[in-house]
């Protein structure tokens, strides 16, 4: 599958703007992950706590694929997303300029995942993605809710999404679908329509992760642990 053999590796970067980070690492066929501070981002990251033994919130709330630079000189991404603009709603698989992710207040954490795809496999991936753009595959809020149900009952994750519908998929389901078309299982044992952005970030398939992290979502348990530790330190000082 990959053009070259690569191993699991995470390269953490700092002191970069989102724009600088993406210009360095966003290449065609690579996967992008983002996390933010909106209510929807927080709701998804909170639901992903069921994937962690210590119930820590997930870091990622959205997944997409980098398409590359086009004739307009801009780098574009392909994603299944819900966007609301003035008098215009984009709901489903769509193309957007990568500059959308330059907003550091909206997208506080970013990652680029490189699975070492060959030019041939990259072309296949993007061709399938563009087919879903052309056929207007819809963004499925309903399936997203089905995934949230499955996260609470892990035995359901391998089964068909209980709220599945035809010709629709949310962001990470879209990415999982594209890679499965090439025979790559990013999240083995998990139904494509029950796949979360956090699942993709933890893929067992060898890859390099370029990580720009500013803020990790905190769970209520994290807050309780910090308070408990603070109280213990206070008691020790006054003892």
For the record, give the distance between the C-alpha atoms at the N and C termini, rounded to a whole number: 62 Å
Count of DSSP E strands?
Answer: 7
The largest beta-sheet arranges its strands as 1-7-6-2-3-4-5
**Average predicted local confidence, pLDDT:** 89
* Proportion in helices: 25-40%
Strand content: 15-25%
Instruction: Outline the biggest β-sheet.
Output: 7 strands, mixed
Shape field: globular
Task: Note the topology.
Layout: E1 9-13, H1 18-25, E2 31-35, H2 39-47, E3 62-69, E4 75-85, E5 88-97, E6 109-114, H3 119-134, H4 141-152, H5 171-180, H6 197-201, E7 208-212, H7 220-238
Parallel strand pairs: 1-7
Antiparallel strand pairs: 2-3, 2-6, 3-4, 4-5, 6-7
Task: Kindly describe this structure.
The protein is an alpha+beta fold. The chain has 7 helices and 7 strands, in the order E-H-E-H-E-E-E-E-H-H-H-H-E-H. Strands 1-7-6-2-3-4-5 form a 7-stranded mixed β-sheet, with helices on both faces. A hairpin with a 5-residue loop joins strand 3 (62-69) and strand 4 (75-85). The model has no long low-confidence stretch (mean pLDDT 89).
Structure keywords:
239 residues; seven-stranded mixed β-sheet; 33% helix; alpha+beta; 7 helices; 7 strands
Short description:
By secondary structure, the protein is an alpha+beta fold. The chain has helices at 18-25, 39-47, 119-134, 141-152, 171-180, 197-201, 220-238, and strands at 9-13, 31-35, 62-69, 75-85, 88-97, 109-114, 208-212. The model has no long low-confidence stretch (mean pLDDT 89).
């Amino acid at each position: 599958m990959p053009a070259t053999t690569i191993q699991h590796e995470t390269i953490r970067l700092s002191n970069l703007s989102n724009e600088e980070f993406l210009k360095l690492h966003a290449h065609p066929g690579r996967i992008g992950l983002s996390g933010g501070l909106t209510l929807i981002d927080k709701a998804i990251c909170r639901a992903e706590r069921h994937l962690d033994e210590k119930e820590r919130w997930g870091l990622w709330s959205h997944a997409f694929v980098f398409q590359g630079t086009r004739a307009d000189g801009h780098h574009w991404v392909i994603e299944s997303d819900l966007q609301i603009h003035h008098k215009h709603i984009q709901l489903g698989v769509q193309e957007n300029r990568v500059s959308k992710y330059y907003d550091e207040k909206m997208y506080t954490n970013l990652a680029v995942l490189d699975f070492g795809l060959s030019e041939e496999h990259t072309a296949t991936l993007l061709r399938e993605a563009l087919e879903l753009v052309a056929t207007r595959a819809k963004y499925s809020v309903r399936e997203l809710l089905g995934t949230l149900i499955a996260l609470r009952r892990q035995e359901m994750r391998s089964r068909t999404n209980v709220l599945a519908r035809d010709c629709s998929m949310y962001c990470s389901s879209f990415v999982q679908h594209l890679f499965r078309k090439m025979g790559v299982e990013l999240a083995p044992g998990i139904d494509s329509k029950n796949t979360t952005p956090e699942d993709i970030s933890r893929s067992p398939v060898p890859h390099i992760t370029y990580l720009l992290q500013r803020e990790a979502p905190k769970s209520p348990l994290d807050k309780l642990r910090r308070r408990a530790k603070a109280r213990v330190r206070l008691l020790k000082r006054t003892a």
